[in-house]
Amino acid sequence: MPYPQVLRDMALFVEVAKRKSFSQAATALDMPVSSVSRRITQFEAAVGLRLLDRTTRKIALTPHGEAYLAQATRLVEEAQRSFDDLIAQAKGPSGFLKVAAPTDFWVIQHLSGIVSEFSQQHEHVHIHLDLRASQVDLMRENYDLAITTDEPKEASLIVRKVCEVENGLFAAPAYLLARGRPKHPQDLAGHDVVLPVAATSATWQLSRAGETVSTTVSGRISCNSLSLARRLAVTGRGITTASLINVERDLDSGRLDPVLPDWLLPPTSVYIVTTSRLLPAKARRFIDFVTKRLNTVFSSAARTPELDPAELRERPALVRAARA
């Protein structure tokens, strides 16, 4: 079997094995399903071993297939990366980059600008930014990477922690005027909260200078969106949780006030997830660019020149967290 054909068939086997589907591999490679199936059969015949068990419902790796997949994956990824690096040396990173990202407000406000800046600097990379409320299957849905605030549990995924975003409590001034300002986390039990989860109650852990307090809160409104929870809080429906970067404009305009500003909730981590450490130049360049820009955005989140020093002293914990 000629050497280039071996590499092509090896790459084809890796696609089918990872997706456990001839049709999905065919779609990813823009090939007829019949061609994919025929070439895998020919490849198995050439090596003299059965690598895949096929049924009408699914595909499973044989023991030989399991052993071969690990080696083949590494070789295919290294070959692809070497090829991409050659192309990148000639004209810079290029190709189609499919990125999944959360629907949080900061994505619309900041990530869109970061992607726009990256696109201006890398004219040969086409970026598709797909906002998703839930985690995606990177392999099956053909994503190059995902930006997420939910750490994936799959051991096969490569997870890079980009930064941490500090969280606090916020409410509309009208709500606080009517219901009073909590002085301690335990006071939250007597307040309405807008929960950004599907629940009627929740336990919040707030920390200050090494002290941590757990308190149970409840409210009449909940939702599955941090952005919607923020908007509901602006209308005076109760106290909600948010990162400072998501409520900067609301604080500056007076639509929201910090609640218990010395106390912080556990931070939210931002991750970039891929299926491999061996990435093409377009993905590596994008990850480096986004990581640097996001760290800059979050580290400067509290630099609000519109606020006078007295206002900044009223929310020291949030300012410290954003500048850390």
UniProtKB/TrEMBL annotation:
Arranged from A to Z, the UniProt key words for this protein are: DNA-binding, Transcription, Transcription regulation
Signal peptide as annotated in the record: none
Q: Which CDD domains match?
A: PBP2_CrgA_like
Q: Name one Pfam family in it.
A: LysR_substrate
Which GO molecular function entries does the Swiss-Prot or TrEMBL record give? DNA-binding transcription factor activity; sequence-specific DNA binding
HTH lysR-type domain boundaries: 7-62
User: Transmembrane segments in this chain: where?
Assistant: none
Mind telling me which PANTHER family this protein's record contains?
Answer: HTH-TYPE TRANSCRIPTIONAL ACTIVATOR TTDR-RELATED (PTHR30537:SF5), HTH-TYPE TRANSCRIPTIONAL REGULATOR (PTHR30537)
Q: What is this protein called?
A: LysR family transcriptional regulator
Source species: Methylobacterium planeticum
Q: What is the lineage of its organism?
A: Bacteria, Pseudomonadati, Pseudomonadota, Alphaproteobacteria, Hyphomicrobiales
